[in-house]
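Hi L.,

As promised, Formylmethanofuran dehydrogenase subunit E domain-containing protein:
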Amino acid sequence: MNFPDFFDQVPRITLRDPLADLLGSVTGGLMSYGYADAVRLAGHSCPTVASAYWLGVRAIKTLYGDDMPTRGAIQVSLRDRLETGTAGVVANVLGLLTGAASDGGFAGIGGQFVRRGLLQFNVDIEAELRFTRTDTGQVVLAQAYPHRVPGDPQTMRLMQLCLSAQATDEQLIEFGRLWQQRVQRILLDHAWDDTVFELKAA
């Protein structure tokens, strides 16, 4: 696929999925995810998808440190309702990384590997997201502020032209370039900027 080159520069994350291991889905149950996987899932690359992916990666790494993270052993709680704004998009990306699922998720085998109920909405928490290890109870609160990374001033004007079918081919290309340029800045230039990605152990 002809994704923008910067997708490959965004750090990936590897987790061990015990269910995948049991069922012989992948050697050792090791599953590796990159930003392109989140884009394939969402169908597009935007500040919301980028922020969800990177918050998820950083939160998982904070929970597990140098240990191999366990996919399917992380509960993800969102402060927003499912129907609110981009909550569903964020939840889908985080479900991809963690294996957490809501009521329609995998019910398990013999009482093990249950994913259902690990993804929760409308939870009373002090941050946008809460990640909890189901084995230790360790918690990380996380929030993204992508609006603090502004786009090029021409972006919105070009978006309006595109949405109203008035843009030239060159303007369509330029809009996409500027849109992804902002995503790139969020994921690479501000990856460790605490004013954009805020994580706190609780």
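Residues 20 and 26 are 6 Å apart (CA to CA).

Thanks again for sending the construct details.

K.
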